[in-house]
Each structure stands twice: as structure tokens, then as C-alpha cells.
């Protein structure tokens, strides 16, 4: 029987944006002696719009008068809020609630113990973090001072239960942990509750199974959080214990004796020594809870870590050859080396469940010694796309085992992706599966993992069999320099730029076109009003039209590579001003200074709108002299005086010339004046021997030439050729007995 092929392409969407937790640390003196306040330290760089309040989380006394709420937080320095305690009711469970305008609340709880508790958790920690789906746990209290009365338990200040035992199963009925097991567990002697001498411990339940994140599916796989960091069940990020930072909690604060997400708060001002953070309890957002600073343990955070242990509450094991290590950082002392299988500055890395570069398995690596777990997942292929486009992901799974009951699933993790996506099997033989997925809006932070799951979505072997690949993205093309300004009119600006070039510019080819943008200032959004195809041109140009006169515009250009979302970043911008409504010189005229001369007097008028209404002020004029026939520009004369309105010009020869004038303002050049030609007769065409008297030329709406010729002059042919020069405008000739001839031409004006 041949395997059935079913092709299913699933479009996946983001399951919603993650509202990151605010970075806040709550600090209090672990021992009640001398404790007058607790503080909340905000590590967010942007502290605008933050609101900080405080509250008592549950009532832990039978007398309401001994449970006053805490005072309002007061801002004592940038990002530091102090909550003063009322000595009478300074014990119990308190929280700092921080929110940003429009954002979710980040709440951090601490437990303030008395120094003379009768009951204490036997593990001497304030909080325990467990995972949904974990086996039931046992809470156990120590009788520090024995009191002959019934032992009772409460959860979250509710009704009492389980009298007589110092242990409590969570959940009480056994089975596995669920979210409803989270809360404040209290163990107290029946008649002593109001003295606040009970044992308190807070159970934090991650909303996902161990090493997974992204409820409700929880298909995100946690990255390694070293040195006691805890994987945030909603974001997948590591929350690092005090004394470590970095995305995997691998960096120890330097200098020591500091706390905060960027190690920015000194434990004792001016005393950045190893022991400065002793005596303090530090609480971080859930699911982290509360711990002592690195190097200390105990409910009073006074006890230094024993040999072979380090970190917050001494919960980490040293992996140096000799066994011991620095109790704050875990680093080996005296040039000692890491134990085999461990690496990193403090010997906490191992081969890693994430198959970092040390792993050379075709499938997953064993997470301790780096050996391969078996050839389960053969391949993941991720199509290369433009950032933001839709990628196709192909998971190919082969296994010596029968795969009938499992499926290859895709998980996508990244900054804005909280969950993963399930597709259907598209090709199946008993030992291989191929599945295709499409994931939209791919960013450089996306990581795709194909792994094995049973039909009910539980992961095979705790999700150890997987293969992952980062998003494969093209680099969008960038035009690195600003476009050039070419010309402007009152409503247009023309720009030009050099084509994107494979060998000298950033980005992946092919570039298929360009999008020019303009705006009037930096507060405005860029506006595109068209695009230009690439077409292999070395330089390209574009004219922005419908612009406002006398306005400064900024313009830039973005190159576009093929495929959806191919538009690259915008180039740097250049600026230019459009001209005033009327910026052309008016009434431009050119006439010979004398009969037979080659000297021309050019005159013009400045329009009234200049300079009074214009931001640009007049500097001078440019006179363009061009050949009438070929239109070639023969000369450009600068007249840098705004007050002149005429100029005497010696023409380069005897020919027909065209004269145009433009204004020069401090914002640039104005447009050329209307066409104004001066038709100058080519005297060489008339043979001198035929001319009897002097040539006379009169300017006006018509050019009138008068001259006398002798009888032999070949009149018609020679003189009518002037008519064709004048491009078939009205003309007339007259001749009288003495051979005098009059020709009339209109001013040579070409239709624009
Ligand atoms: C808190 O106090 C610091 C200086 O002590 C000040 O710079 C900061 O603006 C204050 N923050 C607020 C929200 O008042
Ligand atoms: C970690 O803390 C150090 C100071 O000890 C600081 O220079 C560094 O930027 C921090 N790293 C991160 C990722 O916050
Ligand atoms: C790696 O660890 C696994 C599980 O502990 C074990 O079965 C395997 O033999 C180890 N491999 C080596 C090379 O030590
Ligand atoms: C994630 O979303 C935020 C808010 O929408 C956005 O500012 C940020 O650029 C996004 N990050 C990525 C990598 O897409
Ligand atoms: C790209 O630039 C290089 C060096 O500047 C030049 O030699 C090459 O001809 C250019 N290629 C194109 C297609 O313009
Ligand atoms: C721009 O100038 C032309 C003449 O050059 C004129 O006809 C037009 O009305 C002007 N437009 C504006 C918006 O001032
Ligand atoms: C003919 O030429 C003479 C000499 O210039 C002039 O006086 C006379 O008026 C002309 N006659 C006509 C009809 O143009």
C-alpha cells in the first residue's frame, strides 16, 4: 500500500502580543530587627508613566487592628520607592504593584517575618516555584518554639483545615499541581494567630509544565536559565536571581554587592564588597519569588554558602574540579578548572538542551553529556524571505520507530510570539512524516522548532526530540547616501540618485525599484507619491509634483528588493525649497545694440512677488545663451546683483541665439524664463558685393530689415532662406526699382 499524500498548508497567526513584565526588585531586611521599611527598585530605563502602590496581600492575623495596610510608597531616588512600615503591623505578606499607563500590572510580593516565629518552613525559604503538571509537593513546617495547641493551616487567609499536622500535601488530594494550588500557605497554632508567629510560605505555580512556556498551549521551550534563573512562563525569558544578569543569567554583577536587572543598585552605598547584600531578602516578579543575594541563605539571609554551593540561597552546585567555588559567582578559585562536561566562566554550561554549537547530532543532544539522543528529527527547512513576510517551514521526521501515533509539530518563539502552532500531517509512511507550515510576519528574532508530539499534544520524551532553526531573512537594500536635488519649480522638485549597486551597497539583490518619499518636517510621516522601476539605469530621477510653493521639503528614497515586504530602509534625506508662486523673470527681451553689431542687450523684469512674500530672497540672475537650432547651451552668465535688470552680451558669432533668464535666490535657482529668442541674421549668407547701402534692422514685434542691393543680387533664393530660419512665420518682401528690399519677420517664438 502506498502512503497517502495530503497537502495541507496552514496559515498561522500570532496569538497576541506579550505585555512584558516590568523589571522591578523588591528588597527588605530579612530580619525584623531594624526593619522600618521595604523598597521597590525599578530597572526599567523608561520610567515615565509608572505608578507604584503597595498593599497587604492577605490578612495573617485574627485581629484586624494588627493588620494595618502599608503606607504609600514614596519616591526616594530615581526608580526607588520606599514603603514605611507601621511597627505594630509590620509582619505578613506585602506587595509592590507597579503599572505603566495603559499596561498590565506587575506585582511583587514579599513575606515579612517576625524574628520570633514559632513555626518556620523547614527548607527556610519564603517561596517555592512549581510547574503545572508537577507531582504533588509537601509543605513542611518546623516547630521553632513549641506551643501546646492545635496546628492549623490556611491558604490565602481562607478557612482553616488539616489540624494537627506540620505537613501539608499540595494539592491536598495528591495528583498533579494546577494553577489553583498557587497561594500563601500559613501554618499556625490555634490561639496564636494574632501574634503573627505563624509559618508562611508562598507557592508560585508556573502556568506551564517544566521547561515550557506560553500558556495555554505551552509549546514554547524555555531557554537555559543558569545560576538559579527561572524561565518566565508567559514570556519565555529568564528572570535572574540577584547578582546575575544577561538573557541567560550568565553574567555575575561586576562589581559584586549590587542588585537590579542591570546590577545598577548598590546594596550599601559606597560599599561595593562581596558581603554588602547580606541580610537582605530580594523578591522578583513571579514565577521567581524571593531569594537571598548570591552567596547567602536562610530566612535571615545571613548564612554564607557551604562548600560546593553558591548562588541565591546557595541553591547552585559548583562544578569546579576541586569541588569548591566562589560562593557568590560560582567561579573556580585558584585557577581550578571546570569538571568534565561543564564550561563557561563559572562552569554552569553544559551541552545544553538547545543544541548550541557543541552539539553535532542530527537529532537532539543529550542535555548533560552531549551524546545524541537518536536520529529522531531529520530536518527542518525554513525558506528565506524578506523580514515581515511569510516563511514556509518544512519539518521532516524520520525514525526507526513507528511514527503512527506521533506528529511533527512546529513551535515559533520570538519577541512577539507567545505560542506555537499546530499543523496536520501531510505525508506519512510508518517511519517518516513531512509537514509544511506557513508563518507570517517573520522577524529576525523568530526561532522555529520542529519536534515530536503525541496526538493529544503532549510532547514525546518531554520535548527533547526537536530540531531548531532561526529565521532566514534577506537583508533589505539600503541607499546609503541622500538623493541629489536637481531642480525645482513652484510646485515640483526633481531629485536624482545613484542606483543601488550589488558590490558597493548593503543588502541582497535583486533590486526591482525605488520608492521616493517626501515630507515637510521631521514630525511628519514620509509620503510616497509613486515609485521608479530599476531597469538597470545607473542614475534614476523622480519629480515630486503638487507640492506647495515656497516650502522647504525633505526627500529620500528606499530601494525595493523582489518579493513581498521587500522595501528597504529609507536613505538619508536631503532638503530643497519650492519656489514662490511667480519666480520667473518677466518680459525678457534681447536686441542688438547697433545695426550690424554682434552685441546684444538683454533685459528683464523681476516679478512683484519677489522678494516681499517669499522666504527666499533674491541674490541675482543667470542668463542662458543657447543655439536656436541645436538648443545647445553655449554660455551661462552670472549676474550677481539683485537690482540690475539688463545686461550687455557679446555673442560668440553671427548666428541665431536664444536667451533665457532665471532668478537666483538663497533657496536655489528659479525656473527659466519663457522662451525668448533673438533672431540674428547671418550676414555671410549675403554676398558683400551685392550690398549697396548699410543694413538697417529694427526691433519690435517684428524684425524689419532694410538694405539696398545692386542689380545682380540673387534676391529670391538668398533672402527667402531667412524665412525658413524663422520657422514659417508670416513674412513679406518688397522690392522697388532701385533694388531695395524689406523683409518682415515676427519675433521668433516657439510654442513651449
Ligand atoms: C523620583 O525622584 C527622583 C529624584 O529623587 C526624580 O528624578 C524623579 O523624577 C522622581 N520620580 C517621580 C515619578 O516623581
Ligand atoms: C549586567 O550588568 C553589568 C554590570 O555588572 C552591565 O554592565 C551589563 O550591561 C548588564 N547586562 C545586561 C544584559 O543587562
Ligand atoms: C550520556 O548520558 C546518558 C544518560 O545519563 C547515558 O545513557 C550515556 O551513556 C552518556 N554517554 C556518555 C558518552 O557518557
Ligand atoms: C513587538 O511588538 C512591539 C509592539 O507592537 C513592537 O514595537 C516591536 O517592534 C515588535 N518586535 C518585533 C521583533 O517585531
Ligand atoms: C558597482 O560599483 C562598482 C564600484 O563602485 C562599479 O565598478 C560597478 O560598475 C558598479 N556596478 C553597476 C552595475 O553599476
Ligand atoms: C506655478 O507657476 C505657474 C507659472 O510658472 C503658475 O501658472 C501656477 O499658477 C503656479 N502655481 C501655484 C500653485 O502658484
Ligand atoms: C524705392 O527706393 C528709394 C530709395 O531708397 C525710395 O526713396 C523709394 O521710396 C522706394 N519706393 C518704394 C515704393 O518703396
What is the CATH first-level class name of the domain at 586-681?
Answer: Mainly Beta
Low-confidence runs:
1-19, 351-375, 679-752
Work out the helix count. 1
The overall strand count is: 57
| Net shape | elongated
Fraction of residues in H or I helices:
under 10%
The CATH H-level superfamily of the domain at 586-681 is Immunoglobulins
The percentage of residues in β strands lies in 35-45%
CATH architecture identity of the domain at 586-681: Sandwich
In CATH terms, what is the fold-level topology of the domain at 586-681?
Immunoglobulin-like
Would you write up a description of this structure?
- InterPro entries: EGF (IPR000742), FN3_dom (IPR003961), FN3_sf (IPR036116), Ig-like_fold (IPR013783), LE_dom (IPR002049).
- Keywords: Disulfide bond, EGF-like domain, Kinase, Signal, Transferase.
- One of its GO terms (molecular function) is kinase activity.
- This is Putative tyrosine-protein kinase.
- With 752 residues, this protein is mostly beta strands.
- Among the domains are: 88 residues, Sandwich (Immunoglobulin-like); 95 residues, Immunoglobulins (Immunoglobulin-like), CATH 2.60.40; 94 residues, Immunoglobulins (Immunoglobulin-like); 96 residues, Immunoglobulin-like (Sandwich), CATH 2.60.40.10; 53 residues, no CATH class.
- Helix content is 1%, strand content 38%.
- The chain is built from 1 helix and 57 strands.
- The strands form 17 sheets. Strands 5-6-3-2-24-25 form a 6-stranded antiparallel sheet, with no helix packed on it. Strands 39, 40, 41, 43, 44 and 45 form a 6-stranded antiparallel sheet that branches. Strands 1, 30, 31, 33 and 34 form a 5-stranded mixed sheet that branches.
- Strand 48 and strand 49 form a beta hairpin.
- The longest helix is centred in the C-terminal third of the chain and has 11 residues.
- The chain binds 2-acetamido-2-deoxy-beta-D-glucopyranose (NAG) (7 copies).
Amino acid at each position: 500500500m502506498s502512503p497517502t499524500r495530503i497537502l495541507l498548508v496552514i496559515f498561522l497567526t500570532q496569538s497576541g502580543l506579550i505585555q512584558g513584565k516590568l523589571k522591578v526588585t523588591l528588597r527588605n531586611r530579612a530580619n525584623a530587627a531594624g526593619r522600618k521599611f521595604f523598597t521597590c527598585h525599578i530597572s526599567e530605563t523608561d520610567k515615565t508613566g509608572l505608578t507604584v502602590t503597595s498593599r497587604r496581600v492577605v490578612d495573617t492575623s485574627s485581629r484586624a487592628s494588627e493588620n494595618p495596610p502599608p503606607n504609600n510608597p514614596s519616591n526616594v531616588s530615581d526608580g526607588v520607592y520606599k514603603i514605611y512600615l507601621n511597627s505594630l503591623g509590620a509582619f505578613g505578606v506585602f506587595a509592590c504593584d507597579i503599572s505603566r499607563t495603559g499596561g498590565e500590572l506587575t506585582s511583587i510580593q514579599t513575606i515579612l517575618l517576625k524574628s520570633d516565629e514559632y513555626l518556620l518552613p523547614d527548607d527556610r525559604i519564603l517561596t517555592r516555584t512549581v510547574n503545572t503538571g508537577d507531582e504533588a509537593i509537601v509543605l513542611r513546617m518546623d516547630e521553632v518554639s513549641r506551643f501546646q495547641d492545635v496546628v492549623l493551616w490556611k491558604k490565602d487567609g481562607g478557612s482553616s483545615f488539616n489540624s494537627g499536622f506540620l505537613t501539608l500535601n499540595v494539592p491536598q488530594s495528591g495528583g498533579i499541581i494546577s494553577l489553583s494550588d498557587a497561594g500563601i500557605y500559613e501554618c499556625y497554632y490555634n490561639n496564636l494567630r494574632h501574634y503573627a508567629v505563624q509559618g508562611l510560605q508562598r507557592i508560585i505555580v508556573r502556568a506551564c509544565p517544566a521547561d515550557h512556556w506560553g500558556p495555554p498551549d505551552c509549546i514554547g521551550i524555555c531557554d537555559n536559565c543558569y545560576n538559579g534563573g527561572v524561565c518566565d512562563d508567559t514570556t519565555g525569558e529568564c528572570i535572574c536571581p540577584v547578582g546575575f544578569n544577561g538573557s541567560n543569567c550568565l553574567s555575575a554583577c561586576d562589581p559584586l554587592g549590587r542588585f537590579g536587572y542591570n546590577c545598577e543598585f548598590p546594596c550599601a552605598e559606597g560599599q561595593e564588597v562581596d558581603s554588602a547584600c547580606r541580610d537582605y531578602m530580594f523578591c522578583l516578579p513571579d514565577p521567581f519569588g524571593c531569594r537571598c543575594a548570591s552567596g547567602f541563605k536562610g530566612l535571615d539571609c545571613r548564612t554564607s554558602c557551604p562548600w560546593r554551593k553558591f548562588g541565591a540561597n546557595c541553591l547552585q552546585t559548583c562544578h569546579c574540579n576541586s569541588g569548591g567555588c566562589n560562593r557568590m559567582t560560582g567561579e573556580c578559585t585558584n585557577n581550578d578548572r571546570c569538571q568534565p562536561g561543564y564550561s563557561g566562566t563559572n562552569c554552569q554550561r553544559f551541552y545544553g538542551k538547545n543544541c548550541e554549537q557543541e552539539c553535532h547530532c542530527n537529532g537532539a543532544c543529550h542535555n548533560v553529556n552531549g551524546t545524541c539522543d537518536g536520529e529522531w528529527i531529520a530536518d527542518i527547512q525554513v525558506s528565506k524571505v524578506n523580514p515581515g513576510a511569510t516563511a514556509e517551514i518544512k519539518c521532516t521526521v524520520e525514525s526507526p520507530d513507528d511514527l503512527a501515533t506521533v506528529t511533527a509539530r512546529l513551535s515559533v518563539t520570538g519577541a512577539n510570539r507567545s505560542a506555537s502552532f499546530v499543523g496536520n500531517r501531510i505525508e506519512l509512511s510508518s517511519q517518516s512524516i513531512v509537514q509544511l507550515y506557513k508563518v507570517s510576519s517573520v522577524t529576525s528574532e523568530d526561532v522555529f522548532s520542529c519536534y515530536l508530539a503525541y496526538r493529544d499534544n503532549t510532547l514525546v520524551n518531554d520535548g527533547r526530540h526537536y530540531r531548531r532553526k532561526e529565521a532566514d531573512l534577506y537583508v533589505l537594500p539600503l541607499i546609503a547616501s541622500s538623493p541629489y536635488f536637481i531642480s525645482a519649480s513652484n510646485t515640483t522638485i526633481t531629485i536624482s540618485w545613484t542606483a543601488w549597486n550589488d558590490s558597493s551597497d548593503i543588502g541582497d539583490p535583486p533590486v526591482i525599484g525605488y520608492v521616493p518619499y517626501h515630507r515637510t518636517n521631521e514630525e511628519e510621516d514620509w509620503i510616497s507619491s509613486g515609485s521608479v522601476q530599476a531597469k538597470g539605469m545607473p542614475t534614476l530621477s523622480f519629480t515630486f509634483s503638487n507640492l506647495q510653493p515656497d516650502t522647504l521639503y525633505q526627500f529620500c528614497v528606499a530601494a525595493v528588493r523582489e518579493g513581498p515586504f521587500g522595501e528597504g530602509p529609507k536613505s538619508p534625506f536631503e532638503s530643497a525649497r519650492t519656489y514662490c508662486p511667480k519666480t520667473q523673470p518677466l518680459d525678457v527681451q534681447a536686441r542688438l545694440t547697433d545695426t550690424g553689431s554682434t552685441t546684444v542687450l538683454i533685459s528683464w523684469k523681476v516679478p512683484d512677488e519677489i522678494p516681499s512674500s517669499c522666504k527666499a530672497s533674491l541674490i541675482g540672475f543667470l542668463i542662458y545663451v543657447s543655439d536656436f537650432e541645436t538648443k545647445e547651451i553655449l554660455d551661462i552668465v552670472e549676474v550677481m546683483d539683485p537690482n540690475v535688470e539688463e545686461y550687455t552680451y557679446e555673442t560668440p558669432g553671427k548666428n541665431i541665439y536664444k536667451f533665457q533668464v532665471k532668478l537666483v535666490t538663497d533657496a536655489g535657482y528659479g525656473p527659466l524664463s519663457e522662451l525668448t529668442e533673438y533672431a540674428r541674421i547671418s550676414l555671410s549668407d549675403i554676398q558683400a558685393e551685392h550690398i549697396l547701402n548699410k543694413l538697417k534692422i529694427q526691433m519690435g514685434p517684428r524684425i524689419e530689415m532694410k538694405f539696398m542691393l545692386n542689380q545682380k543680387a540673387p534676391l529670391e533664393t538668398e533672402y527667402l532662406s531667412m524665412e525658413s530660419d524663422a520657422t514659417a512665420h508670416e513674412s513679406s518682401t518688397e522690392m522697388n526699382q532701385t533694388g531695395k528690399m524689406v523683409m518682415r519677420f515676427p519675433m521668433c517664438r516657439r510654442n513651449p
